[in-house]
């Protein structure tokens, strides 16, 4: 099990640093190697401490949901069976994102290429469900054989009273929906034998907001949950037992007052180091700014 020092928490927007000469790969944010007291960054990272993600202006591609009166959030893509499968939160009723606590459902869309366009195939999880992250468990990692698809999310998809925003001229004129339904301490997720389902509702034995799952090459699991801080859980298999591996610190004041952190994403690099990237937002900015 990697030590706590092996975890880094990358939060957007990424901050410039004034790093000193390195003495180990940890000084290079585990995104590069320390060679002769200088960081040699891997291909997608830069900066004195390899802590700045290389980005470029993306091409404007209507990958999914580009039509009028449409709102979506998040989304993860896996490759399987010669296609790319996208699972994304979509607001029903022509509503904007501010209705996510009532109108969010999880849609399955497919494309022949990674950058789309993705075409809607079906609804994987009906309202209310949000924050989807999909994991493919290949057959060689399962004792009984056969592929398994595990869809993590919040909300259990067992129904909610959705809103109709079709008569509103501006999404920002629609009042936000109330707080999401209370969680009962058991985080829901769905499993299926194929990307198309059928999906079976299951639960973890603990609460997990904004779940960020990761399947390791040995078949074990790691999962970040967001709630007053990011908590990293681990288990030898999906059925558990699940235990807390680490509590990840976040720079609470680095982006100023009113900033919140959510929706982590967890991955493992070629060196076996774990990384987490998240979304930072300021909830004091009006939605029409």
Structure description:
Residues 170-196 are annotated as: Disordered. It comes from Chromera velia CCMP2878. Keywords: Signal. Residues 1-21 form the signal peptide. The protein is mostly beta strands and 289 residues long. The chain has a domain at 69-203. Helices cover 1% and strands 40% of the residues. The protein has one helix and 19 strands. The strands form six sheets. The protein has a four-stranded antiparallel sheet. Strands 10-11-12-13 form a four-stranded antiparallel sheet, with no helix packed on it. It has a four-stranded antiparallel sheet with strand order 14-15-16-17, with no helix packed on it. A hairpin with a 7-residue loop joins strand 8 and strand 9. The protein is globular. It starts with 6 loop residues before the first strand and ends in a 7-residue tail after the last strand. The relative contact order is 0.14.
Structure keywords:
mainly beta; 19 strands; 1% helix; globular; 1 helix; single chain; disordered N terminus
Order of helix and strand elements from N to C terminus: EEEEEEEHEEEEEEEEEEEE
User: Structural class of the helix and strand makeup?
Assistant: mainly beta
Number of helices: 1
Question: How many strands, what sense, and barrel or not for the largest sheet?
Answer: 4 strands, antiparallel
Protein name: EGF-like domain-containing protein
InterPro entries: Glyco_hydro_beta-prop_sf (IPR023296)
Keywords: Signal
Organism: Chromera velia CCMP2878
